[in-house]
Amino acid sequence: MRSPLTRRGFLAAGSGLAAATALPALSGCSALAAADSDPDTLVVHSQLGTTAPGSPTYLAALKRFREENPGLEVRNLVNGDDLAQVYETSRLARKEADVVMVNLYDKTLAWTDVGATVDVKEYLDGWGLRARVRPEALTAWTDGEGRVRAFPYFATNWPVAYNRELLDRAGVDTIPTTGDELIAAARRLRAKGIAPVTVGGNDWTGQKLLAQIIQTFLSEDEARHVYTTGDFGGRGAKEGIDYFVALRDAGVFADKAQGLISDSMTTQFNTRSAAIVSQMSSGLAKVPEEVARHTEVGGWPLAPGAAHDKPTILRTYTLIGFWISPNGRKKIEHVERFLRFMYRPETVSRFIEESGRDMALRSDTVSTGFPLVAAAQRLGDDVSQVLLPDVYVPPAASQPLITATSTSFTRGTSAAKVRATLEAAYRSV
């Protein structure tokens, strides 16, 4: 589906956001103002640099790049979840960074279409870097017009982590692979005062798990249709919603899951308060060693008649890419040097070895220091992959879907109400 955001809409929306956007969150307004004025400064806007997974490795890479390029200053601007909004505001002022490191989701889906960033296909090919990219990643970053939105970089596996020690304590002998087994395990865990499945039902983590469960009865093509159009009325989508509601009302999810967020979810699992979590690889990398050694990774349990023959996981190659801005095109020689450096096998390997990151680039390196990440990489044919809906959900529906997620995780909400709430998220599209 073509994004409803037009160039005029982008400009109008950005002007309304300007007053509310926290520009000081960048490394100072003066840094932003210099973004396109200094030909010997490369400005990179990213979420890496503070506590985000991979930040120490990234900062070390910047240090090495600066040492190799003494005549080129590199300025790293850092934002968190508001990066896309801050970038759009800076672009309106024509003071945007040269390179942006962010995922393909929500606002960013429209950037290349409205000229906020440039098609990088000619650079990917011209610089000879296409062969470094996994084919699945290149497909994911290519839009319907054949444009490559950004240089792919971070990927992620998204399995389900099971604390074997807590399951044993509750008398659960095997990792659940069916819905009935999961419900039985949840009852045993609750009897021991242990939360079964912890989930951020009030943010994106819950939205992803809900989407995963709904896809239990959907093929990939059917799931793509559902999340592109918001049509949850087909038989498979209805069965998936019914399955979710049955699990929820049987007590599978932690108490008050509709109010939890990713941080509380992670805390519950990492402190042994909950036995099961659906966790992306960057989160698996942060599981404490004393918990990780008792943890197994697998997929989400299936229901009878599922469209998949094995428990499911999510996987995506669009976690972080290097987007080139119109300002970056003016400094394309500097951008080329930077991206060639970041694409080097040794640079990629350090992210895998030091930070436990999954990469969208080809590499034989394995996350040996992050056993759960490595275990997720080895799952292979033991699990079935379902669709991560991010690149198919229209930007206008992304945040409403998170609100719908909280409603869905509220116990007692009927399947019909869950469906109506999900479909309502698409009304403004």
Automatic annotation (TrEMBL):
UniProt-listed SUPFAM superfamilies: Periplasmic binding protein-like II
One Pfam family named in its UniProt record: SBP_bac_1
Coiled-coil positions: none
Tagged with keyword Signal: yes
Protein name (database record): ABC transporter substrate-binding protein
PANTHER family: ABC TRANSPORTER SUBSTRATE-BINDING PROTEIN (PTHR43649:SF30), ARABINOSE-BINDING PROTEIN-RELATED (PTHR43649)
Annotated signal peptide: 1-33
The organism of origin for this protein: Streptomyces ziwulingensis
Family annotation (Gene3D superfamilies): Periplasmic binding protein-like II (3.40.190.10)
Keywords: Signal
Lineage top rank: taxon: Bacteria
